Amino acid sequence: MTTLTLVRGDITRQRVDAIVNAANSSLLGGGGVDGAIHRRGGPAILQECRALRASKYGRGLPTGRAVATTAGALDARWVIHTVGPVYYAGEDRSALLASCYRESLRVAGELGARTVAFPAISTGVYGWPMDDGARIAVETVRDTESPVVEEIRFVLFDERAYAAFEAQVG
Ligand code: ADP
């Protein structure tokens, strides 16, 4: 059984086995969660990201996929980078957002991560409406069986995000 928990705070301050990064496909850093993870985690993370770009992901990490690196100086063993879809009202990209959560949990399971912290993927710079982003996040992790992951922790940056997730968890 996987336990779902909600906390309000900064994902880079969590002590967990794996921290999920709302990355972009370049894997070379960005703003929001991505910027905070690289700032606090230090250069070791970027170094592994560069190596991934030079090998398996020459064209970048596709939207909806996930890949792990070291967590550097963070209080975690791994960072799992996933690329959320940019919200666009003219096309339903929900399946890609769901895929981020599913693929991140798959990678977490392969690594043996028992505790995993997620941000609200795509709800920042990528513009996904918070209530819908929370619904997809909660539904998807509830539907994803993991024999390895014991705790999934959503780390919500502000009260609005926390309230949206709380409404979904019930
Ligand atoms: P995306 O590009 O996928 O939209 P962002 O990093 O811009 O990713 O934002 C994703 C969500 O994470 C937003 O709701 C944002 O408020 C939140 N966020 C930003 N910084 C942090 C942080 N340090 N810890 C947790 N959540 C954060």
How far is it from the N-terminal to the C-terminal residue, by CA? 18 Å
Low-confidence stretches: none
Instruction: Work out the number of β strands.
Output: 6
- Kindly state the mean pLDDT as a whole number? 98
Shape: globular
| Domains, number | 1
Topology pattern, helix = H, strand = E: EEHHEEHEHEH
Q: How many helices?
A: 5
The largest β sheet comes out as: 6 strands, mixed
Strand content: 15-25%
**Do you know the CATH topology?**
Leucine Aminopeptidase, subunit E, domain 1
Question: What is the spatial order of strands in the main beta sheet?
Answer: 1-6-5-2-4-3
Oligomer: single chain
Briefly, what CATH class? Alpha Beta
Under the CATH scheme, the architecture is 3-Layer(aba) Sandwich
Write the CATH homologous superfamily: Leucine Aminopeptidase, subunit E, domain 1
| Hetero ligands | adenosine-5'-diphosphate
Brief summary of the model shown:
With 170 residues, the protein is of the alpha/beta class. The chain contains five helices and six strands, in the order ββααββαβαβα. It has one domain (3-169): Leucine Aminopeptidase, subunit E, domain 1 (3-Layer(aba) Sandwich).
Write the layout of secondary structure elements.
Blueprint: E1 3-8, E2 18-23, H1 32-41, H2 43-54, E3 66-70, E4 78-83, H3 94-111, E5 115-118, H4 130-143, E6 151-156, H5 159-169
Parallel strand pairs: 1-6, 2-4, 2-5, 5-6
Antiparallel strand pairs: 3-4
Helix pairs in contact: 3-4, 4-5
The structure holds adenosine-5'-diphosphate (ADP).
